[in-house]
Amino acid sequence: MLDSIFPIQLPNLSPSAFAIGLQGFNLEIRWYSLAYIFGILATLFYLKFCNKKENFMSQKAYDDWLTWAVLSIILGGRLGYVFFYNASYFLENPLEAFAIWQGGMSFHGGLLGAILGMYLFARFHKINFLHLTDILVIAAPIGLFFGRLANFVNMELYGRITNSNYGVIFPNAGAFPRHPSQLYEAFLEGILLFIILISLKKFTKISQVKGRISGVFLIFYGCFRMFVEIFRQPDEQIGFLFNYLTLGQILSLPLVLFGVYLVFFQKNLKKNLAKK
Question: Domain tally for the chain?
């Protein structure tokens, strides 16, 4: 039965969700753009929900958050891709580093950009930084889920060749079945991570110490990412590093270590990060 279904042969899917043409003006909306929009809007709504209950930020801060978040994530994600994944190419073609419409974003870079941006945002609006991140990381898996689905539709970041019955043949990756690693990540980093975080928030007292929910996010994201990298095809321009380790695994390890510190070795970091 399964042999008649798998491997799945994907059709040639378009990265464009829809396009609007009006009197010489063309606007193309891509699936990846929609993933960013849905993820950020979901986070904005969850932030508003939490702020109604806890009243930890002003209306002015809430109104400003979207701008800070979008700029932080996009700038961090693009710079992360430029420096982590294709530095030699962009050194030769520096102007193309600004061509974000051509694709090329790094989650690790986006995360670093978001951390820095939210730290500056919290300082500017006199908000407890770790309180803010404990809320944001609960909504973050929603954006991760949509982002990985967009990767699947775009037929990018696909997995390694597999002999299992659950492979997918991507039209742009040859005739052999591959692991749908994008879907593995959508489940682990999106659905499962969200369930873990929201359950800890609702049914435990872990959030009484600021920063612990953020630490749990970093630990599980890092572990899930390192696991999925076993099935994911390494970036062509980089390949394997250090005895079959991938760059994604190396970049995820510091996230796990810092997450362990936040969960087990800090109490509340009042002196340097808390402003309330």
Answer: 2
